[in-house]
Amino acid sequence: MRRLAPPTKAPLAIAGFLALPIFFASLMASSLALEKPRVVEWSRPHGHIARIFHNASGSNEARIWLFALVPPLVLVLAGWIASFMPYGFYISCGAAIVVGLALFPRLHRWQVHHTMRFPYGEDLLPDNTTSSSLARGEWEKDAADTVRSLVHYTIGLAIAATLISLFLAYRRRRAHHPPPALDGPDLQTGGAPTATGGV
Known about the structure:
Helix content is 59%, strand content 6%.
């Protein structure tokens, strides 16, 4: 078990800290990608099909949460591996940026597909009814904007943590290597004349 304990915990700590906003961004992205309503259909007279949309099933919700856990767990694993490597703190910060940006490439497609799966909007109510609180596509746009905001927030925190760590490392290096002192009688006495005897 001791071999699994990292020699330094800073990379793992920063990875765990940055994994929190990544998780919420991943949860919203996973909902856009995987959520779908339960649809009940039946035949009506004259060949018409009646259709009612219900909330997502429990298995669908479980899949959403399962996939939402993948990016933050990947980040924490990267932080644990970085704890055994030189400059592990910076590797963890870089991993957080990469994992966050990985949510972007298919985000718009997930948004469009989610809107198509929910023709009445996330509230499952037609827009022309007074009970409807969300127009079609409204929730999807807000969710995608939230993902982008959380990822940008994570990137900002990672960059800030990197800059602070670099500054502290620079301060420590300056403290361990002070500038050399200049020798000389004038500097030792402050440049004031000394009396070696009376007149």
